Backbone:
């Protein structure tokens, strides 16, 4: 099965801060996919991401996917936010694969 998380808001993170942080860590910010044209930031650990830019629309959803993509190729991912109850359920089902990270 696949969980498809809706994307809410045009960006969660300040692109200038993402660029600075990715370059500081990797020497490059990322690249545009030659096949689909989507920009993919080089991955950053959660604690190195810029602060989230929240949206009032977030209250309507139990799980959300960031509009920003990270990684490359089949290793691409989006950041996910979910309500505590759903996060607990997923971690209980697969504790080796998931952990809960609080956001400020």
Residues:
């Amino acid at each position: 099965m696949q969980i498809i998380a809706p994307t809410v808001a045009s960006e969660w993170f300040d692109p200038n801060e993402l660029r600075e942080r990715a370059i500081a860590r990797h020497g490059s910010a990322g690249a545009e996919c030659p096949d689909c044209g989507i920009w993919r930031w080089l991955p950053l650990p959660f604690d190195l991401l810029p602060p989230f830019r929240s949206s009032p629309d977030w209250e309507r959803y139990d799980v959300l996917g960031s509009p920003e993509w990270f990684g490359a190729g089949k290793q691409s991912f989006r950041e996910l936010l979910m309500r505590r109850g759903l996060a607990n359920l997923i971690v209980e089902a697969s504790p080796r694969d998931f952990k809960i990270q609080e956001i400020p």
Observations:
- The mean pLDDT is 91.
- The chain has one domain: 15-93.
- The chain is about 20% helix and 20% strand.
- The first strand starts at residue 30 and ends at 32.
